[in-house]
C-alpha cells in the first residue's frame, strides 16, 4: 500500500522566503549605511536568519549588493515594460517607458545607490563596473532591444539603437536627475512631469520617427 501524498505547504518555499528576507534587509541597510558600512552580520540579524544562511544564498557582500540592485530595479519597473507588442501609437509606448524609467531613476533608492557608488573606493575595485552591469547596463540593453524590434517593424527609423537608447535616457534625466544627485530639491510631478515626458518623447521622435511616404 502506497503512502498517502503529502499536502503541499502553502506559500513560498522556505528557502525563497529567506532569500527574499535577506534581499529586503540588504536593500534597507545598504541605503541607510552605504556599502562599506553594511556588514553581513547586520544583514543576517535584520533578515532574521543566520549568517551561514546569508552566505548560502549570496557568496559575498559584493554579490549581495548587486542582487539587491537588480531586485530594486525589478521592484520599480513593470515586468512587461519593454515587451514588443506593436500596439498603440509609438508615442504612447515611449511615454509609458519614459514615465516608468523616470520614476526609477529619480526614486530615493536609485539616487542613494548612485551616491554610494560615487564614494571613493580602493584602487582596482571592480564594484563600480559590476554595479553598472547589474543595473544601468541591463536596463539600457533591454530598451535598445525594444527600439531595435520597433525599427525592424517600421515603427522607428534608427540605425544605431544603442546610441538612441543612450540619447533617450539622457533626455529623460535632464536637469532633474543631476540636481537630485547633488542633493538639490528637484521634484517633478503633475503637469510639470507630463511636459518633461512629452518634450523628451517628441524630441526623440523628431530624430527617429519613421518618414511616412
From TrEMBL:
DNA-binding region: 39-58
Pfam families from the UniProt entry: TetR_C_7, TetR_N
InterPro entries given in the database record: Homeodomain-like_sf, HTH-type_TetR-like_transc_reg, HTH_TetR, Tet_transcr_reg_TetR-rel_C_sf, TetR_C_Proteobacteria
Gene3D superfamilies (alphabetical): Homeodomain-like, Tetracycline Repressor, domain 2
PROSITE patterns referenced in this protein's UniProt entry, alphabetically: HTH_TETR_2
Entry keywords, A to Z: DNA-binding, Transcription, Transcription regulation
Entry's Gene Ontology molecular function annotations: DNA-binding transcription factor activity; transcription cis-regulatory region binding
Domain HTH tetR-type: 16-76
Record has Transcription regulation as a keyword: yes
Protein name: TetR family transcriptional regulator
Taxonomic source organism: Arenimonas caeni
Lineage of producing organism: Bacteria, Pseudomonadati, Pseudomonadota, Gammaproteobacteria, Lysobacterales
Amino acid at each position: 500500500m502506497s503512502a498517502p501524498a503529502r499536502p503541499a505547504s502553502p506559500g513560498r518555499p522556505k528557502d525563497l522566503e529567506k532569500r527574499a528576507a535577506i534581499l529586503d534587509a540588504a536593500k534597507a541597510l545598504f541605503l541607510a549605511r552605504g556599502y562599506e558600512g553594511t556588514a553581513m552580520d547586520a544583514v543576517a540579524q535584520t533578515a532574521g536568519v543566520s549568517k551561514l544562511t546569508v552566505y548560502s544564498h549570496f557568496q559575498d557582500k559584493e554579490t549581495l549588493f548587486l542582487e539587491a540592485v537588480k531586485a530594486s530595479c525589478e521592484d520599480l519597473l513593470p515586468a512587461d515594460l519593454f515587451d514588443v507588442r506593436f500596439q498603440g501609437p509609438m508615442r504612447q509606448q515611449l511615454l509609458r517607458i519614459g514615465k516608468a524609467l523616470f520614476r526609477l531613476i529619480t526614486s530615493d533608492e536609485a539616487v542613494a545607490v548612485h551616491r554610494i557608488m560615487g564614494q571613493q573606493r580602493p584602487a582596482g575595485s571592480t564594484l563600480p563596473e559590476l554595479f553598472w552591469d547589474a543595473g544601468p547596463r541591463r536596463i539600457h540593453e533591454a530598451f535598445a532591444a525594444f527600439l531595435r524590434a520597433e525599427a525592424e517593424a517600421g515603427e522607428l527609423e534608427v540605425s544605431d539603437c544603442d546610441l538612441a537608447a543612450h540619447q533617450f535616457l539622457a533626455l529623460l534625466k535632464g536637469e532633474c536627475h543631476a540636481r537630485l544627485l547633488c542633493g538639490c530639491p528637484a521634484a517633478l510631478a503633475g503637469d510639470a512631469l507630463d511636459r518633461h515626458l512629452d518634450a523628451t518623447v517628441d524630441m526623440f521622435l523628431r530624430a527617429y520617427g519613421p518618414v511616412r511616404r
